[in-house]
Amino acid sequence: MIAKHQIGESGLLRWGNLTFPHPALRDLTLPWFTIEADQPGPKLAIVAGMHPNEVSSMEAALRLKDYFAGQLVRGSVTILPILNMPGLYSHAEFVCPPDNKNLNFLSPGSLEGSFSEVLIHQVLHLWAQDADVFIDLHGGDLREEVAKFVMCQLTGNAEFDRTTRQLAHQFDADAIVEFAAEQTNNRGRATNELPWLGRHAVMSEGGANGILDEESVLFHVNGVANLTRHLGLTVDAAVARKRENVVVHNFDKIEAPHSGRLYLEVKTGERVVAGQRLGWMTNLFGEWQADLIAPFTGLVLMVVNHNITSQGEWLISLAPLEDEAA
């Protein structure tokens, strides 16, 4: 079993370090918070720091423990504010250093896999096994900027999907990605895989370049807080939604056709039309190599904003806007 080594307690809030039973994780300890109300109710599991440079989402997790310590009236919330501890102080981009794998795309994990695969398995199937909702907070590694958006996976089960949509729509987002049940190009995230096991999950994205910014922090904090108000865990006033909250059903990668210099002409949250130039690439001498062209009308959800890129690198996430393309 997972061992929770408690360090402190204040009111409803407890905190400490977590260790895991699997031998692959014998040297790993993770900080945790648990807030438990006197009245029974839904259980939430919140994770941040799969990518340890995404500091706005990690700060949000820290603030949420204080919010719940003062506002939780039913149920319980448990938080892992930094999942990728092996990469924290080396500022590892995207990957977990013991095996250089991206934790974000390894769900549902494997007990027979490498370090990161085992870690995801233990988090999802031991630490969060009884959670009614799993919430995964992300937002902007060192060379990228992401729009403020939230993701959830639909399954084709009308009742289950209705609940999942309601959870995702508690965030005030530029876009809400309701992944279609039949999609196969965006898999491996906890929010993609847990619904197929009958478990509700949402994932929020908001931040840029490993920079702590208040707007992104509040996007995550207010979204989670609204979600818990929706579930009745808290009863304080909800935060009004003011962003566009455009619903999309997938997004595609636009990759670098060459290694060289990148010059973008679009930003996150921008609508583009099919055939529009999104940017261009040159070689290291500044000679043109290729234009980046929008393959369809869509909404820009993520851009890599470093001028130097490598062939095949994921540069832009573009979500189709079906109604506007018609």
Automatic annotation (TrEMBL):
Ranges annotated as spanning the membrane: none
Matching InterPro entries: AstE_AspA_cat, N-alpha-Ac-DABA-like, N-alpha-Ac-DABA_deacetylase
UniProt keyword annotations, A-Z: Hydrolase, Metal-binding, Zinc
Domain Succinylglutamate desuccinylase/Aspartoacylase catalytic residues, every copy: 40-231
Reported cofactor(s): Zn(2+)
Xref: SUPFAM superfamilies: Zn-dependent exopeptidases (SSF53187)
Pfam families per UniProt: AstE_AspA_cat
Molecular functions per Gene Ontology: hydrolase activity, acting on carbon-nitrogen (but not peptide) bonds, in linear amides; hydrolase activity, acting on ester bonds; metal ion binding
PANTHER family on file: BLL3975 PROTEIN (PTHR37326:SF1)
Protein name listed in UniProt: Succinylglutamate desuccinylase/Aspartoacylase catalytic domain-containing protein
Organism the protein comes from: Paramixta manurensis
